[in-house]
Design brief:
The protein is mainly α and 101 residues long. The protein is built from six helices and no strands. The protein has helices at 2-14, 20-25, 34-43, 46-52, 56-71, 77-100. Helix 5 (56-71) runs antiparallel to helix 6 (77-100). The longest helix has 24 residues, at 77-100. The termini are far apart.
Length: 101
Amino acid sequence: MKIVVILLTLSIEDYMLPCFTKTIWGLDCPGCGLQRSAAFLLRGDFSAAWEIYPAIFTIIPLIGVLAVDQLFQVKYINKITIMLLIASVGLILTNYILKFI
């Protein structure tokens, strides 16, 4: 199983998309680091994933909650979704601002 995950992360790193904002203007965009952070998560390196793009830890549960919402009727799904959205946007903006400091 571990070999499959390693092979998956190796293939992901070989095909990562370049950041067009960084290529054209030379500035990081708010999404810079998302792909590398996901690759670190697949490898199990959580501290490196947090260091590169902290919002990955709220985006993945948000995607999971939205998927569950499509399949089942959950009582407080709107509040959970809004909370995860606010946390994700907050982490993205904080990380983006800290990149320039």
